[in-house]
Structures are given as C-alpha cells and as structure tokens.
Write a structure and sequence with these properties.
By secondary structure, the chain is α+β, with helices and mostly antiparallel strands. Helices cover about 20% and strands about 30% of the residues. It has one domain (about 10-140): Roll (Thiol Ester Dehydrase, Chain A), CATH 3.10.129.10. It is built from three helices and five strands; from the N terminus they run E-H-H-E-E-E-E-H.
Length: about 150
C-alpha cells in the first residue's frame, strides 16, 4: 500500500479522548504504546455507535482481538491534550475487519498519529470463526454514510 495505507473511507466515526497523566512517559509525552489504547477507544465507540457494542458480541461468544497493527507517529501528544480520534472501517472479510485511525490534537488540529488494526473473529477457545452475519450486514450497510463532527 502506498499513500492510502491509512486512508479514512466514509463513514468516519469521531470521538474525543483526554490524555491522562498515566498515559505519559518520563519525557512528558504520550508513551508510544498508548496510541493502541486510543485506537481501541476509537474502534470501541465506532462499533457501539454504528454497529453493535463489543459486549453484545461477547455474549454471542465472539471476540475480536488485534492480529496485526501499524502506527505512523507524526507528533507528540502531551498530558491533558484533548485528542480527536477518527476511525473508519477500511476492509471487511469473512473472519476479519481492518480499521484505520487518525489521531489529532483537538485544539490546533495537529496530526499526531495514523494507523490501522486488523481484528479477527475468534470464539472463546481462541479458534478462528466467521464474523456474525448480522454484524457483517450492519457494517456493510454503513458504506458511504456520513456522520456529524464531534461537538
């Protein structure tokens, strides 16, 4: 993939997240691995608002762990920054889905990180399984929709 490696294809879900003191390292910036937690926040809210909450999937015995991820860091977030997390579903396959993320600082719009995760469906024993048909239908029905910006 070239320049579109992290492209956000509509619908793009947006949510805000405040950087906590515990998210930072000794240098006063967000510890690099915590961007994966911000991705998880974005993905969780995307699913809750646009498809189905993870808690409902888990009741059905489906878990969506991360099988692959990548982050491209652009600038540092710091304690108390208000972040804008933009999340989009980039690819949907029978047993996996790929989400793309863009994290920026809310007050000045500074791009902080781009990335993706590939999440696979597994059952409670960790065996690969198909995404539930209802979930696939809900996610497919989102294609091309637009949503309002975060207030």
């Amino acid at each position: 993939m070239a320049g579109d490696e992290f492209a956000l294809v509509p619908p793009v879900h947006r949510c805000a997240c405040r950087v906590l003191y515990g998210d930072t390292d000794a240098g006063g910036v967000v510890y690099y691995a915590n961007y994966l937690r911000f991705f998880e926040t974005g993905r969780t809210e995307f699913m809750r608002d646009l498809a189905v909450p993870y808690s409902e999937l888990e009741k059905e015995g489906v878990i969506l762990p991360v099988a692959d991820c990548r982050i491209r860091y652009k600038a540092s977030a710091r304690y108390d920054d208000l972040l804008l997390i933009e999340t989009a579903l980039a690819e949907l396959k029978p047993v996996s889905c790929r989400f793309h993320y863009r994290i920026s600082r809310r007050d000045d719009g500074k791009l902080l990180a781009l990335g993706y995760t590939v999440n696979v469906a597994v059952d409670r024993q960790g065996k690969l399984s198909k995404l539930p048909a209802e979930l696939r239908q809900r996610l497919q029905s989102l294609e091309g929709k637009t949503f309002p910006a975060v207030p």
